[in-house]
Design goal:
Layout: H1 6-19, E1 26-32, H2 34-37, E2 48-53, H3 59-76, H4 90-96, E3 103-107, H5 108-113, H6 116-119, H7 124-127, H8 134-141, E4 143-147, H9 161-181, H10 188-208, H11 214-224, H12 229-237, H13 245-265
Parallel strand pairs: 2-3
Antiparallel strand pairs: 1-2, 1-4
Helix pairs in contact: 1-3, 9-10, 9-13, 10-11, 10-13, 12-13
């Protein structure tokens, strides 16, 4: 386990304590995302968890567990919340920008299927829009905090050029929404930050087939695509947040550049597991 921030450690310990009860039928608890890679920033980062339950778990079992973890999120102070005033549009923004959930519950067979629809508990239609970097990112950054370690057994599909395009389409439209909704949504800048951060994570994974701390990923792309004010501001705004419409506008060309260069530099398809040990060129691009 990485060294966790006190609030994260308290929350994860509380979840483990609740899940270790045999009546819960929990197989393992996986911490992933920024808290697992050391990039957690209070007020901006989520504590992402994947709760794996036994195949015999029913829908009611999952809902009870979901309610318990939601209560622990709130009591430990890590529930999705922002330091600024939330407006009427923010609930809609949460759904459009995929900022609704920070934990997922799936069965053991769901996880071992590698199927995004089953792991993320989304419809087959929604799963068609999920790029193939999503599950490898969870597995790559994931740390089994408790229970059976299943991460090495999860099948990972080859990443295609199409997945770079899918990610771009998703993040660009999220940015477009934040720009349009800026006058009505107090947290619009935060949503734009999240879209750009996910874009950086996604593109970096295409190069290295592993996640890293956000600062490392940003530094890589500042060298790879040239200095970008939006990337510099992304890091600064996470420690000193201010609503910035200019930042949202700067995100658009940066997002385009990130995905174009990623698609150009890398040879697809890329096997997430096979690429891990391959060397990189001096400029940081993939061999």
């Amino acid at each position: 386990m990485p060294l966790l921030a006190p609030v994260v450690d308290q929350y994860v310990s509380s979840v483990i304590s609740a899940c270790s009860n045999p009546d819960r039928g929990v197989v393992s608890v996986v911490l992933f995302g920024s808290a697992a890679t050391g990039s957690y920033t209070s007020g901006f980062s989520d504590v992402d968890l994947l709760i794996v339950v036994a195949d015999s778990a029913t829908g009611k079992d999952k809902q009870r567990l979901r309610d318990t973890i939601s209560q622990l999120e709130a009591s430990c102070g890590v529930a999705k919340r922002y330091s600024y005033e939330r407006g009427a549009w923010d609930g809609l923004a949460d759904r459009i920008t995929a900022n609704v959930r920070s934990f997922f519950i799936c069965t053991r067979s769901d996880l071992l299927s590698g199927d995004p629809a089953r792991i993320l508990d989304i419809s087959a239609v929604q799963a068609r829009f999920v790029d193939r970097v999503a599950i490898p990112s969870i597995v790559g950054s994931g740390v089994t905090a408790w229970g059976e370690d299943l991460l090495t057994q999860v099948p990972l599909l080859p990443i295609r050029w199409l997945d770079v395009a899918k990610a771009f389409f998703s993040f660009f439209n999220q940015l477009l929404f934040t720009a349009v909704a800026y006058p009505f949504t107090p947290g619009a800048t935060k949503y734009a930050m999240e879209a750009l951060k996910r874009s950086v994570h996604n593109c970096y994974y295409c190069y290295h087939c592993r996640p890293a701390q956000l600062a490392e990923e940003v530094a890589f792309f500042q060298r790879r695509i040239g200095p970008r004010v939006a990337l510099e501001q992304l890091v600064k705004l996470r420690t000193a947040y201010q609503p910035r419409f200019g930042f949202i506008l700067r995100c658009f060309p940066t997002l385009v550049r990130l995905h174009l260069v990623t698609a150009w530099d890398n040879q697809f398809p890329r096997d997430p597991r096979a690429v891990l040990d391959r060397p990189l060129r001096r400029d940081g691009s993939a061999v």
